[in-house]
Amino acid sequence: MCVVGTAGSVKGVTPDELREVGAAVLLANTYHLFLRPGAEVVKQLGGLHRFMGWDGPIVTDSGGFQVFSLGSGLEHGVGKQIGMFPDESSTGRRPRGQAARLVRVDSDGATFTSHIDGSRQRLTPEISIAIQEALGADVALAFDEPTSPLHDADYTRLAMERTHAWARRCLDARTRSDQALYGVVQGGAYSELREDSARFIGALPFEGVAIGGSLGRSKADMHAVLDWSMPHLPEAWPRHLLGIGEPEDLLSCAARGIDQFDCVAPTRLARHGQLYTPCGKMLITRPEFREDARVVQAGCGCYTCATGFSRGYLRHLFVANELLAYTLASLHNLRFILDLMASIRAAIRADSLAELTAEFLARYQPGMPQLAGGQ
Amino acid sequence: MCVVGTAGSVKGVTPDELREVGAAVLLANTYHLFLRPGAEVVKQLGGLHRFMGWDGPIVTDSGGFQVFSLGSGLEHGVGKQIGMFPDESSTGRRPRGQAARLVRVDSDGATFTSHIDGSRQRLTPEISIAIQEALGADVALAFDEPTSPLHDADYTRLAMERTHAWARRCLDARTRSDQALYGVVQGGAYSELREDSARFIGALPFEGVAIGGSLGRSKADMHAVLDWSMPHLPEAWPRHLLGIGEPEDLLSCAARGIDQFDCVAPTRLARHGQLYTPCGKMLITRPEFREDARVVQAGCGCYTCATGFSRGYLRHLFVANELLAYTLASLHNLRFILDLMASIRAAIRADSLAELTAEFLARYQPGMPQLAGGQ
Question: What is the CATH number of domain A2-263?
Answer without folding.
Answer: 3.20.20.105
